[in-house]
Amino acid sequence: MSVKKKNLDVYLEEVFKQFIAIKDDDFSRAQEVFKSVFEQIKQKMGEQCNFFKKYGNQVMYGGSVYDGTKATKMDEFDMDIVIRLPINYEDIIIECDQPGFVRLKIISAFDNLDKQKEWEQCHKVTRDWRDTDKYLLQNKFRSWMHGIVQKALNEMDGRATVNGTTYLMTYKESGPAYTLYIRNEGNDEEFKLDVDLVPVIRFRLPRWPKGYRTIEKVGSSCRDWLVVPKPNKEVSGAARGRCWRLSFQDHERDLIKECHHLKKVLRLMKKLRTALKMKAIASYYIKTLFLWKVEKENKQFWQKNLSFLFTTMLQDFHDALKQKNIPYFWNSKNNLIESLKPANQKLYTEKLKVVLDSAVANDVDKTIFALLEADEIEQFKSSEMYQRHSTSLPPAVQSKTSRSSSVTSITSSQEQGNLQNSQTDDGQTVLLKSILAKLDLLTRKLELQEERLIKLETAYEQSRKDVQNEIKVLDETPIVQAPVDIMLNGNVAAPQNESETLILF
């Protein structure tokens, strides 16, 4: 009797389709709403600040939406607002002593802005952007942007209308970023969108930060790199305001394109991170593991089976956490998880080890359920696909096991696990046949017990009726002799005294 193993590829594809892939309609609506809302906000921002109106015209999507690796819901993304500085960028001194971050020093170029005719009407806002040592301060730059957005929203009364639907907007600080929260008003279908509005400064090749790798195989169109006003958590005091985070998102996007299954596996890994509640692991850390793999392997590597790629990247993820080291792709001196707390490192490593062992052993249910939240597991179990593949037993055995959920529950954890991990060698075949025989025997025994219970219940009902009839007859018939003799073990035993009572059944 042959037994078919559960196929992890099939289950991963189904989980991706049900819980990770973003529906086209959701993506289109989110884009449409935000584009319209932001255009209204941007216009008001220009009215509030002449510098923004003149130097903040270009916007671009960033983050996972930009990469095509957004998972689960289209409910958040990054919007980079490119702010052009009114100077020659050759006059900006770029210092790179903190891996992953740079300092921007602007001396005479900014000193001369107050001598230009547009100083009062436009350039004056830049006056507080530098400290006394002429370093451009990311926190001042970010606060300037935040103030303009807040003024624009106040002017709009926190509302914007798109296709007849009114959306409420609030703007709040969220960690190192400022986030625009967009919600619909009224009884329409609920709509939520959180957008990080990030002002960035753009540099272009051939300018390149010293000590950072260049990739020859990136496309010729990848010329831009960005500095982002997000602080370096490893430094404090005045130094923190001077540190600007680097972003090579154009180059990263080009590296992962045309890698067949890469984006799907990356989104599965991000879903696993969320389900396992690994909050200290940023999405970018996981993306970095994939960038290193892209460098190591050719593009044909990503055409392999989804289950193989998932298990491979899960192994890389586990090893990185165990070693507490995910090197920044552009500068390996920067360990992205260096500040990860030991307790979290131990907990996350153990969680990933459980999933990794399950995937390697082809324990499909355990692997898949690790990707899902509790309510998602129930939803997945009730899906048509899961019901169709819920057992790897042949139809004849399925029909018998369906009569008894108790037998199935007794054998599922151990015997189903053996079935899933089975191989085609003779020893495993014998084991499988033995397990199926035992299951069949248990099922038959249960059926016999059920038949016996039915007979006992029938006999009990008949006995109860007979007793009631006998009692009725005894009540109506006068006793004219001594108490009834009782036959015990073939002998006649007389009552010891007249007070003994005859007990019937």
Write up what this structure looks like.
The protein has 505 residues and is an alpha+beta fold. 48% of the residues lie in helices and 16% in strands. It contains 18 helices and 14 strands. It has helices at residues 8-20, 24-48, 50-55, 63-67, 108-111, 138-155, 238-242, 249-256, 262-275, 283-296, 306-323, 342-360, 364-370, 374-381, 384-388, 395-401, 405-420, 426-476; strands at 58-62, 76-82, 92-95, 101-106, 159-162, 165-174, 177-184, 192-204, 224-228, 243-247, 327-328, 331-335, 486-488, 491-493. Strands 1, 2, 3, 4, 5, 6, 7, 8, 9 and 10 form a ten-stranded mixed β-sheet that branches. A hairpin with a 5-residue loop joins strand 3 and strand 4 (101-106). Helix 11 packs antiparallel against helix 12 (342-360). The longest helix is centred in the C-terminal third of the chain and has 51 residues, at 426-476. It is elongated, with a radius of gyration of 36 Å. The protein starts with 7 loop residues before the first helix and ends in a 12-residue tail after the last strand.
